[in-house]
From TrEMBL:
It comes from Oceanisphaera psychrotolerans. This is Phage tail protein. The lineage of its organism: Bacteria, Pseudomonadati, Pseudomonadota, Gammaproteobacteria, Aeromonadales.
């Protein structure tokens, strides 16, 4: 049962009261079962439009229509799963556009790993925003990053990518002790 079926009212299991059931006639019982099966099938058919409103579950034709409505265009060789996420989170991404914390949330929603956004750094022009990414994220998502900056970035700013190579750090704690003595000596 998907989430749309959980939101829709349930079709009750109903036994029709038949006055002839006590006489051993089973036709009304079979008729009741058949009608219930028909209404259950019709109930599923009526839920199909609800399923088409969710960008993560709808058909691709409907996805393209929802994307057009939300102002999202698919870039070349974009995986369908990523396209579905971009369409689903279009409103939230538009709301978060234009601020550093919002930009981080946009990247997080779309599955891009660690990101840091730096604005107005010393020794940099005021309109340069530096986006720090891991090397693998930049290499694997270059088109996506360009589309995101073009769509959600500030219009009067320049964006610069800075590649960071994350290295695991191991730190071991151990007890270290020793004793120290000072000796003085005089000549002569």
């Amino acid at each position: 049962m998907n989430k749309h079926q959980q939101q829709a009212p349930d079709l009750p299991e109903h036994k029709a009261p038949w006055w002839m059931d006590g006489n051993g006639l089973k036709e009304p019982h079979f008729l009741s079962k058949g009608l219930h099966a028909f209404w259950r099938r019709l109930w599923h058919w009526l839920l199909i439009p609800l399923q088409q409103l969710d960008p993560l579950e709808c058909s691709e034709a409907m996805l393209n229509l929802i994307a057009w409505d939300r102002g999202i265009q698919r870039f070349s060789n974009e995986p369908v799963a990523l396209y579905r996420k971009r369409v689903k989170y279009a409103f939230a991404n538009a709301r978060d556009a234009g601020e550093s914390a919002g930009f981080k949330r946009i990247f997080e929603r779309l599955g891009i790993g660690w990101v840091e956004v730096h604005e107005r750094q010393p020794d940099q022009p005021w309109d340069v925003i530096t986006i720090e990414l891991a090397d693998m994220e930049l290499a694997g998502n270059q088109q996506l990053l360009n589309v995101l900056i073009q769509h959600y970035g500030r219009t009067c700013r320049r964006y610069r990518f800075q590649v960071v190579y994350p290295q695991p750090l191991r730190l071991h704690a151990a007890r270290f002790s020793g004793s120290y003595q000072n000796f003085g000596a005089k000549l002569g």
